[in-house]
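Hello,

I think I submitted the iron/sulfur cluster job twice by accident. Can you confirm which output corresponds to this input? Input:
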Amino acid sequence: MATTKSEKDYSIYFQPPSLTDAKKRGKEDIQVHYDFGIPEELQELGKDKLYLIQTYGCQMNEHDTETIKGLLEQMGYRATEDRHAADIILLNTCAVRENAEDKVFGELGHLSHLKREKPSLILGVCGCMSQEESVVNRILKKHPFVDLIFGTHNIHRLPFLVKEAMFSKEMVIEVWSKEGDIIENLPKKREGIKAWVNIMYGCDKFCTYCIVPYTRGKERSRRPEDVIAEVRELARQGFKEIMLLGQNVNAYGKDFEDIEYRFGDLMDDIRKIDIPRVRFTTSHPRDFDDHLIEVLAKKGNLMEHIHLPVQSGSNEILKRMSRKYTREHYLELVRKIKAAMPDVVLTTDIIVGFPGETEEQFEETISLVKEVGYDFAFTFIYSPREGTPAADMEDSVPQEVKSARLKRLNDALNVYMKQSNERLKGQTLEVLVEGESKNNANVLAARSRTNKLVHFEGPKELIGQFVKVYITDTPTFYIKGDWVQEAVAN
Ligand code: 5AD
Ligand code: SF4
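Support: Only one job matched these inputs. Its output is below.
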């Protein structure tokens, strides 16, 4: 890779990313490492120093931030919210759409002033953006004050990299493009009543619009015994809800060579653990099998909410997205899920304005939305990602048309969201109280089993508990109710 600092002598920590390498999927075995530890001399490095991490993007990234916090705290660092007081600031970035990247570059502009005021500040960039060659080149060129760039496969190396950044005059860059390993026993700083648990890393699907298979590497599943031990420990610590995480949880276990054990088996085992609520994200319709539906239908601590990204309702677009299912296959899956769980809530992700999407093809997405009746959807305008196949596809759809389609789609979705919320009026729901509502401290915010946001008035002591709420009103983005003062089993 050509860099503007080529005349300088980079250390062994100058390991830039390569999207070409990231694309390769080797046959090498997945190594699981159980011997992680931070050498003693690095455990004092952050003594009396403060850290601040800004996180962008998905829950996988949020959870990585918990690991980064865990590592920094084992190095003696403590958290701060005040960027002027921080000795190290890390941006844990998202590469999935261009606007996420723009935010980070904007933020780097602001942080350059801080760095000038306080040269000892260590400024780092990590997460999905750091896996992209073009991003690393741009930082080298336009933001040379950045001290440290490390990739999604290099998180466990953080203590060494921070030390290097402290003592090196050069930008420390360590981004492995290919990684087949799983590092167990990394420290994690978890807070509150809900905990994220990784069940797998990476993605092998290579949808043509998506950068994630390049930034997160190949699919690799954690061993079931490690996942189960972690969930048991979280239950023991009193967590009320866990969210199992993977880029495509339905591919869990496909990479095991010694055992036949898939996501349905894992859910069936976790179902027996004494943790009140279990959720998972995100699913891929192609790998969603009948056994999993059967297990989810047993309910108990498995919540009746499935996030099932569809992306488009048009077979032609699905084909060009390389989603590997058809509209008919998706609708059949929805039918099977609803038959097994009549009260299931389905949510989804949809992209509008994929290169060359015609009006008819967009209409097919609207008709699919109507047919399924989603309770919620994350909707996006297609954003070209350098290095992905769709970025090279011809695109004649004007931006205004794409924006108008997004609005029409959201209007259609809102009708169903409102209808499904209205059906809850007069029902009593069991909710987990998560905290105060963002806008009104007298109101508590809770979640139903189907992940609906429920607002009601009640004492703060209810936070962290399961209570019953009688639903009285259903504005679009949340539902309102009255606390029913009777005991709940959990
Ligand atoms: N442009 C727009 N949306 C995208 N997503 C992924 N890649 C892109 C892209 N290039 C959306 C998909 C995915 C969600 C996490 O982000 O809908 O499910
Ligand atoms: Fe962003 Fe996707 Fe990476 Fe998550 S996996 S951080 S959403 S690019």
